[in-house]
Amino acid sequence: MSISFNINENNYIQQIDTMFLKKRNIYLGVKRDDLLHPLISGNKWRKLKYNLAHMKKLKKTELLTFGGAFSNHIHACAAAGKEFNLTTHAIVRGPELDHNNPTIQFAKQCGMQLHVVNRLEYRLRNDQDYLNSLQTRFPNAYIIPEGGTNSYALLGCEELVQSLPAHDYLICPTGSGGTLAGLIEGSETATQVIGIAVLKQAEYLKDEICKLSNKANSQNNWQLLTDFHGGGYGKFTPELWRFCQDMNINHNLPLEPIYSGKMMYALFQLIEQDYFPEGSKIIAVHTGGMQGLDGLKYRGLI
Q1: Strand 169-174 versus strand 281-286 pairing type
Q2: Domain 13-38+154-298, second-level architecture
Q3: What is the reported pTM?
């Protein structure tokens, strides 16, 4: 396999310029990782990059992963399969498949093979015996966990930090904890790294992050804020959705209300509460996932 897994990793930071920020003398830049690639964008590419390199090293030719029917990770893995000419498989949480769902339609268009399982079987996705049985069933497959978070995912997120200009605060949305762990690994101790949890009761993620990142264990320059989940994973308030639309109209910054929109909405509330000292330089990471809007429209949620 002589294939090279690369995309053009541009380094575009969009400054948000408002009186709201000016009067507090705060710089806010958005790392537009949503623009990395039309289909494999944001933290999904960052997490896949070194997993694909490791897959190549192991001489595996197929990719197998897990996700729900509207998963951004499944969307990205399917797109990577098409982009790099790989066979891809997804174990999809059932009980059945809605073939009109835009994420499922896209995955199938990319040639991804979808294997629907009931919720009981899906719960085994991190069980070693179950993973061994899948490896036997798909001997050529490199298995990536749900959401793409593992030690190889962290390397790509570390790399993101190294491309940034000087900053005091680095902020990202947090679902599985992989992106936040990678940003902690890549950051200097003088930088405060903040994750905005997008799901309810996310305190347990702190332990997950410490398992993933050695630095998270030994440094206190990071935190996970768990009060901005907007009702839970995949849920959002009308105010949050209105904020996302306003950011797009007023600042040409497209947001979805599940990940990056939740983070930006939380960030503006924190700034309003004078959480950040005057003169702070903040960089917020837009982790992509904009195709999620199609799923929200499909379900009549926006």
Answers
A1: parallel
A2: 3-Layer(aba) Sandwich (3.40)
A3: 0.94
